[in-house]
């Protein structure tokens, strides 16, 4: 595993799944996606998201480099973030295609760690106007998470999802400027970043 490692002694959750982890030392890391763990990402996405992704989606991710990271909790793949750059309307933006964590491992800071990674990509690249993504309109958990990190609903995409009800999605965006790309996300989870490179 590479890139970011964090350690937390998790002890403030009331959820029964989290109680199992509460007395353990939890090590969370972000690692590279490669051909040997691509199947793990497919299974993970199937378990987290109500949509399926085609083979071209996964093939393209193998070439994405830093734009796709797997999230590990004590060496187990439990989440992932996958992004791409988008050039439209004379703006350079980063689109979060997927960012998710298995429900048993939520509230440990993995989502915030992955979002921090995305912000660092924008900082390194420079000249990125914003980060944006779509969220199903009834996904209150995801909406609350992104709003906590300064994302705003900017529009509603009608019939965005073909096989889901409700089929509409909110388009969320976090605008960036030189000062914003240099700030770091401050999380409310008991998280200590050990290696941020």
Automatic annotation (TrEMBL):
CDD domains: NAT_SF (cd04301)
GO molecular function, one term: protein N-terminal-methionine acetyltransferase activity
Catalytic reaction equation(s): N-terminal L-methionyl-L-alanyl-[protein] + acetyl-CoA = N-terminal N(alpha)-acetyl-L-methionyl-L-alanyl-[protein] + CoA + H(+); N-terminal L-methionyl-L-seryl-[protein] + acetyl-CoA = N-terminal N(alpha)-acetyl-L-methionyl-L-seryl-[protein] + CoA + H(+); N-terminal L-methionyl-L-valyl-[protein] + acetyl-CoA = N-terminal N(alpha)-acetyl-L-methionyl-L-valyl-[protein] + CoA + H(+); N-terminal L-methionyl-L-threonyl-[protein] + acetyl-CoA = N-terminal N(alpha)-acetyl-L-methionyl-L-threonyl-[protein] + CoA + H(+)
GO BP, sorted A to Z: mitotic sister chromatid cohesion
PANTHER family: N-ALPHA-ACETYLTRANSFERASE, N-ALPHA-ACETYLTRANSFERASE 50
Major site of localization recorded for this protein: cytoplasm
Subcellular location: Cytoplasm
PROSITE patterns: GNAT
EC assignment: 2.3.1.258
N-acetyltransferase domain mapped to chain residues: 28-177
Gene Ontology cellular component terms for the protein in this record: NatA complex
Alphabetical keyword list: Acyltransferase, Cytoplasm, Transferase
The protein's name in its UniProt record: N-terminal methionine N(alpha)-acetyltransferase NatE
EC class name: transferase
């Amino acid at each position: 595993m590479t890139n970011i490692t964090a350690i937390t002694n998790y002890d403030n959750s009331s959820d029964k799944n989290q109680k199992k982890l509460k007395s353990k030392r939890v090590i969370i890391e972000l690692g590279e996606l490669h051909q040997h763990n691509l199947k793990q990402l497919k299974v993970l996405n199937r378990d987290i998201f109500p949509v399926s992704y085609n083979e071209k989606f996964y093939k393209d991710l193998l070439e994405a480099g830093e734009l796709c990271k797997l999230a590990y909790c004590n060496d187990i793949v439990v989440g992932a973030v996958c992004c791409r750059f988008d050039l439209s309307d004379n703006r350079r933006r980063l689109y979060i295609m997927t960012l998710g964590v298995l429900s048993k491992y939520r509230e440990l800071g993995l989502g915030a760690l992955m979002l921090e990674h995305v912000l660092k990509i924008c900082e390194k690249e420079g000249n990125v106007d914003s980060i944006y993504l779509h969220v199903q309109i009834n996904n209150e958990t995801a909406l609350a998470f992104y709003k906590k990190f300064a994302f705003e609903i900017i529009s509603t995409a009608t019939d965005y999802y073909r096989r889901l009800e409700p089929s509409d999605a909110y388009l969320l965006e976090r605008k960036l400027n030189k000062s914003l790309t240099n700030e770091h996300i401050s999380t409310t989870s008991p998280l200590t970043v050990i290696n941020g490179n």
